[in-house]
Amino acid sequence: MPTVLGIAILGSGRVARARLRELNERYDTRVAVVASRNFDRAYELAFPIAAAATDEWEEAIARRDVDAVMVCSTNPYHAPMVRASIEAGKPVSVDYPLALSLAEAEGLVELAQSRGVVLHVEHIELLSAWFVTLRDALPRLGQLHHLTWHNLSHRAATPEDWTYDRAHGFSLFQQASLPSRIITCVGQATWIEGEETFLGEQGTRFGRRATRLRFGFGKEGVGEIEDILTSEPETGPSAEFQVTGEQGALVGKQHREVWYANPTGNSFEALPVMPRSGLFAQDIAVFLDTIAGQGRPYAALNHVLETLRFADAAERAVKSGQRIVLSPSTA
């Protein structure tokens, strides 16, 4: 690889802009081209940094001055863009999800490994300061037996907000933060069941989604998820992630605080959460170090697939109304 890597940015939304800002702070990369279905948006981002602009993402990947690819497009494009990058022999970083089906994701991982091409899947929720604190404190709890996630998110359902569109995948395929953090804490799920309801539906778009899931882990562990996304104001927003074990509980609140509760629940200790910023900068640095052979992804491909197995089982449980039993992973 050359000293200064030529990067193709596929996408022109919020994440693409964040990655562009971070890449412009580095001396070892150069954005060679920005691709977007909307050429004007691609040109808007490309012109100030003297990069090329195109509305043909295949053309961007194929350029001779592109050494690596960053996929920041909408979810349905992730898999075909990643596949094209791997087949071109170019290292590729993709925002979660890798694909909108488990089978396709498994195929892409197998293809990357067989071709010896770096495939990096973004899971920046694992880098957030509060979760790093909670994860590092897990040994204090001993054997884990309960995990809960309660979340209420409110924001306007603009036409550009794809999270309000079922065409962009099942809710747990859309967001890695739930299954990724769960897998990190308790390992592979053994079974999962639940339901998902929608209000204000117009075609594939909706105004409110409520996802409620229960799952098993370990020998007798049980987890519960209640995740609500709404375009209309409700009490909140709120977020609480709790893991309980033999020696107490850890509670992450509002994506900022982490508390340890002793086994009797009558004493609470605030754990220090070190300020962290530039999560996309950290993610990019890991990708580039992996290309250079100087590091490895913080989310291994086994973790990526385990996260998608959880999401896939949750989707099947919701659609069937049945408990889905997961076979032990051989990954």
From TrEMBL:
One Pfam family matching this protein: GFO_IDH_MocA
Output the InterPro entries linked to this UniProt entry: Gfo/Idh/MocA-like_OxRdtase_N (IPR000683), Gfo/Idh/MocA_Oxidoreductases (IPR051450), NAD(P)-bd_dom_sf (IPR036291)
> Domain named Gfo/Idh/MocA-like oxidoreductase N-terminal: which ranges?
6-123
What name does the UniProt record give this protein?
Gfo/Idh/MocA family oxidoreductase
